[in-house]
Design a protein that fits this description.
The protein is mainly beta and 131 residues long. Helix content is 6%, strand content 46%. Strands 1, 2, 3, 4, 5 and 6 form a six-stranded antiparallel β-sheet that branches. Strand 2 and strand 3 form a beta hairpin.
Length: 131
């Protein structure tokens, strides 16, 4: 492993509130729904890594931009999980909101909000119960 390629781009922190509830009770497989709300903060290294524009990279239509540490937006997500003894399926939809964030003024940011979707599948080859 080439450790010289590992770079610390700063920190990103987001305290969150999470709630999960079963949709079908006392069943196997289990079906649950969840909601999570995050408020995000980041340091200047992190924000400049993703949203900053160094002087040598600036152009007439893309001005130089240097971020400061602070508020980095908020997000709200909804998820569904389907869990059995042998596999897990899950998906989410997440709304990202950048209004009043430090990176909002970056020329690289074109919109104040975004919606993203994701899903995953996992096969359980071992469980603590041995099933």
């Amino acid at each position: 492993m080439n450790k010289s390629s590992i770079t610390n781009v700063g920190w990103h922190y987001g305290p969150s509130v999470y709630f999960e509830t079963p949709l079908l009770t006392y069943t196997d497989p289990e079906l649950t729904a969840s909601i999570r709300a995050n408020v995000n903060f980041a340091d200047d290294r992190y924000l400049n890594y993703y949203y900053g524009i160094a002087p040598q990279d600036s152009r007439a239509q893309r001005n130089e931009f240097n971020n400061q540490s602070g508020y980095a937006g908020a997000d709200l997500s909804f998820g569904i999980n389907f869990d059995t003894k042998k596999y897990w399926l899950g998906g989410f939809v997440k709304y990202h909101h950048l209004a009043d964030s430090k990176q909002q003024q970056s020329p690289l940011v074109k919109k104040n909000s975004n919606v993203s979707l994701g899903f995953g599948i996992a096969w359980k080859f071992y469980t603590q119960q041995g099933n």
